[in-house]
Amino acid sequence: MGITEMKKLFKDYIQDVIPYEPGKPIEDVERELGLLHVTKLASNENPLGPSRKALRAMRLALRKVHFYPDGKCFELRKRLAHEFSLGEDQFVIGNGSNEIIELLARGFLNEGDKVISSDSSFLVYPLITKVCGATYVSVPMKDFRYDLRGILDQIDERTKLIFIANPNNPTGTYVRATEVEDFLSKVPKDMIVCFDEAYIDFVEASDFPYLLFHVKAGKPNIILLRTFSKSYGLAGLRIGYGMASRELIQYLEKARQPFNVNRLAQIGACAALDDRLFLWRTKHVISRGRQYLYRKFTKLGLSFVPSEANFVLVDVRRDSRLVTDALMKRGVIVRPMNAYGLDRYIRVTIGTRFELMRFIHALKKVLRKGEGK
Ligand SMILES: *Cc1c(COP(=O)(O)O)cnc(C)c1O
Description:
By secondary structure, the chain is an alpha/beta fold. It has two domains: about 5-50 and about 275-370, Aspartate Aminotransferase, domain 1, CATH 3.90.1150.10; about 50-275, Type I PLP-dependent aspartate aminotransferase-like (Major domain) (Aspartate Aminotransferase, domain 2, 3-Layer(aba) Sandwich), CATH 3.40.640.10. Helices cover about 40% and strands about 15% of the residues. It has a seven-stranded mixed beta sheet, sandwiched between helices. β5, α8 and β6 (about 190-195) form a beta-alpha-beta unit. It is globular. The relative contact order is 0.16. The protein binds pyridoxal-5'-phosphate. Pyridoxal-5'-phosphate binds next to α5.
């Protein structure tokens, strides 16, 4: 079969999809550049590693991996229901919260439907929308923040889904409780609003919206996404969940694979939820790390976007791809923001103090020598 025949086989709208480009793995950089100890601050992973409790539980569970996992995630569901005082049937558990995004698209989008989100937000939203043959509309940000009024203006009769990452990746900004309440009072009831709260554990702002209230109050068309990838340090296991009304969950359950969440992930997640000390230490490291970066950026005269997440967006005042390449040669991986339309910005994940010092040291050299100009 030739290229042209192959092209004809694929759905038209898949042709234009640009595959998601993840942060470069440490192993690749070490191999390609012949470096030994590379620091990765590119994918918002937990600098403390995984919780010890989770590790211990998974080690014990290893001997049972010849059994299929529990397709219903019974233990984790029970644990989460208790944690949030919701019904066990108000959770959908996924192979990462990214799978829930996919289930929403698969469950609700027909060809020609419309999905609305914001510019400079999570690239998985447009990716999955386009694969379903739906139209993705991204509303420009205002001061690096979601413009909820702008989103309201874009709603029409084809609109099925709205994605709001709060706090947002890659900007680290958030929409306030008052803004969200106003927005929710105006959104028509026949569409789904998905709040992606992957970074909620790092939020310190007091006016951050408490949306669980709406789920508890029975609002049918809201779903909140959470993940074990960031604050719980389990990104490599792939596990996350959505919380919503029973009706909404019921549809997502129909769209998922029977054994979508692997056995170790379920065990690890349950144990991680019990590791309060680990979560507390993580929040502490992130909070201190943010302040450290703010101080250093200010000293270097670089402007940055104040963040409620475990990363900071900083203006390096030159092509961010060249700066990230120069940093990589010095053993530090960060993320250029060109793909998000922010050509002069890089996104730095908060690491340990040692990792952040290494990053700042390398950044100073790169900027001083004019590498990446
Ligand atoms: C990291 C991240 C997630 C987490 O995805 P998982 O599939 O749970 O690892 C979700 N949403 C956003 C915006 C993120 O940045």
